[in-house]
Design brief:
Layout (H helix, E strand, L loop, with lengths): L1 E10 L2 E11 L4 E5 L6 H8 L5 E8 L2 E2 L5 H5 L3 E4 L11 H12 L6 H11 L1 H5 L10 H15 L3 E5 L7 H16 L3 E5 L3 H7 L2 E6 L2 E7 H6 L1 H8 L6
């Protein structure tokens, strides 16, 4: 579904990603783990063309994304929920969801099905569909950010810290929703600081250190081998 080969990227005079290679298969969830500042968010931004790629190749469904602008990349079936959510606060839930649909789908008859699918995934959004995004709780805003990404991305979701700062009950709802999407055939690449959450969603994980993937393992391996997490992340597997 998605493949990065020896990708280099950065900002200004600084290089953040150094020969980064990874892949996400169809119907697969992959987590990017690592300490702060190791290039996880930059990886997502580079895939979408928001950060300049300085070398290597990124392909999506076999097509090289080089030279494409961000909106052209997104229209190929990639949805993005950035850290901080970036919702349109004064617009309603339904209006926030309609924006990526309207920019991508010329057939307006599909809108109701797409909207109802989002509300089935996150029922609180359906109950408040006319409420402004800025008036929602943090958990509801994150649900909306993920639902908006889902409507924009038919094949792959890029999620940056989808459970950061949320109550345990909300985290459980989001984990369940992501697993549902995976069963429905949507691939997921998520940045996640909470290792336990990552293990509950992802099939595989990469650990990034200074812009390089220093470990690739299944989440089953990470869950069973405590030393891997301690050695590469400095955390206990139960955290």
């Amino acid at each position: 579904m998605l493949r990065l080969d020896a990708v280099k990227a950065g900002y200004g005079d600084s290089t953040i990603l150094w020969d980064l290679s990874l892949e996400v298969g169809a119907n697969e969830a992959v987590a990017l783990l690592g300490r702060n500042g190791m290039g996880k968010t930059t990886t997502l931004r580079t895939i979408l063309g928001l950060t300049t790629r300085r070398g290597g190749r990124i392909s999506f469904k076999g097509t090289d994304l080089g030279g494409l602008r961000t909106f052209e990349i997104a229209r190929r079936g990639i949805g993005y929920a950035p850290e901080g959510r970036r919702l349109f606060a004064t617009l309603s839930i339904e209006e926030n969801l309609r924006i990526p649909f309207a920019s991508k789908h010329p057939d307006r008859r599909r809108w109701r099905a797409q909207r109802d699918r989002a509300f089935a995934l996150f029922p609180p959004l359906g109950e408040r569909r006319r409420q402004s995004a800025g008036s929602l709780s943090g958990g509801e805003q994150q649900m909306l950010a993920i639902a908006r990404a889902m409507i924009g991305g038919d094949d792959l979701l890029l999620l940056d810290e989808p459970t950061e700062g949320l109550a345990p009950g909300v985290v459980s709802s989001i984990v369940a929703a992501l697993n549902t999407l995976k069963r429905e055939g949507i691939s997921v690449l998520l940045v996640e600081q909470n290792v336990q959450t990552a293990l509950a969603v992802a099939d595989r994980a990469y650990v990034l250190e200074k812009g390089r993937a220093t470990l690739s393992a299944t989440t089953a391996q990470l869950a069973q081998d405590r030393s891997l997490l301690q050695r590469h992340l400095g955390v206990d597997r139960t955290r």
